[in-house]
Design brief:
flat
Amino acid sequence: MGLLERLRKEWFILGIVLVIAVARLEPAVGVKGGPLKPEITITYIAVSAIFFNSGLSLKTEELTNALMHVKLHLFVQIFTLVFFPTAIWLFLQLLSITPINEWLLKGVENPYQLR
């Protein structure tokens, strides 16, 4: 395998190394408030592009088959968004009658609050 063929095959790794080298040489480009505006581009655009690209790689029949499992999807959503927060809330109510620090309980409760 020739060097050029190897570089074509490993283009993604080569790109990562190149981006890391450029970031090392000029870190001001990627800082918060810099020209790339990472607080916007990474948070919204890059994450959306990654999910969109992943979605494009799905085969239509696989997507259709996955969408047919409505009961499974409902179970996962209800478990994640209803059961688990309710169980944590009940557990915290139980812990609140113990001498545990109030701020510790608030720290445990905060990540599970639905907004």
